[in-house]
Write the structure tokens for this entry.
Amino acid sequence: MVVRNVREDEGRALLEMLDALRLGSMGSNAITVRILAANDHDGVCSTQILVSVLHKKGVKYTVVPVSGNTEIIEQLQQLEEETEVRSVVLLNCGASLDLQQQMEESAAPANVKCYVIDAHRPFLLANMSKRSDRVVVYDDDPRLEDPT
């Protein structure tokens, strides 16, 4: 997993994520982005912002509200059969779940990448390791910034 601080480089990390979602959708008429959104106010609002940007970029997506890790795991298990999905965006959920392990156990295609934007703490320590670049966590915690 790769951890990106969105406070660095004037938010360039989020623009890079949007570019990756757009590039992943090129050449396909199918839905290539699955958004798993927490069913809380932050999840709903961030979903509305993301889908408006994706719509303007011409990226096809589906939104699935989730209320916990069990529902996230169920959605990841469905990826084995849905080969057109190339990106999973987790909004205000997912940081407390070992996503790399779950993707391996659910036999998600190797080209599927997860992007996690979650304000809940703490993050699962396994999510902070660099054992895979299939999962990217975006963080804006000012405590991670270098004080110098």
